[in-house]
Sequence to fold (290 residues):
Amino acid sequence: MTRVINHERLLLLVGLFLTGVWCEKESQFVYSTVGDKVLLSCTNLITSDCSRISWTFFFKGDGVRYTKEVNQGKVWENSDKASRMSLSSNCSLVLQDLKSEDAGSYVCLQDGNATTDIYFSVLAISSVSTINNLQPGGNLSLSCVLFTYFDAGSCKSYSNGFILSWAAVDGTELLLDTRYKLTHHNRCHITLTITNLQREDNNRKWRCQMNTTQNLQVMFLDFKSTFLFGNYSSEIPVPDSDCSEPLPISRIVLCVALPVMVIMVGFFTWRADKKRASASTAGIELQELK
Fold:
């Protein structure tokens, strides 16, 4: 009896394989940045009929989340991603205007059978510095976080498929000086602190870069430090007078008021002297006439 059951199981598996119902599941690691657009491919499909396709989302971090994003080829209207999500003609999932909470595990299913597992991570930059700090002499703190498919911003020991770093805009290693401080919280979270901002740091781009160790993929995100009070010249002007240096309002008023006061005093003094001279001349003429 047992032998007959085993034969039936074997015939069932062979039948599934021959009819194409049996398929191999593929795993993909996909990376993108906040605000970007991504295509999550659904592979190993038996048919191109998207009405037989579903997509699920799973995330395990602060709390476990499991939702069905697409059901029978249609985006689930109650999904928090519904307005930013669509299905392409080949049944792949398209996500736009990416957010950090989009990171997680996505599974494509055909007729209820998983065909593709996608482990999706999102790169983001945040700053705890206030806008008042963005000026010469201020400090800037930038945190670069890779929100991963399993535990956002807190990578596990097996997360070794990438390297996260702060780099120059051309992608080369950031040359550190005494103003820079790097803090590595873990593989998915690094902070760059810039002290004593300079004039040339206005509108400068600070780049967080991720390099994958397997397919040598490079992904980056830039933060632009625009100063609060407009543009600052990187060159310090040579002063032409005592009033050309950047001064407080009170000193600026003083610089303007003093010359005006000197001119006014000189004018009234000259006018008074002229009147006295005229009066003196008139007195002399009167004496002569007498």
Notes: Helices lie at 2-19, 249-289. Residues 249-289 form the longest helix (41 residues). The chain is about 20% helix and 35% strand.
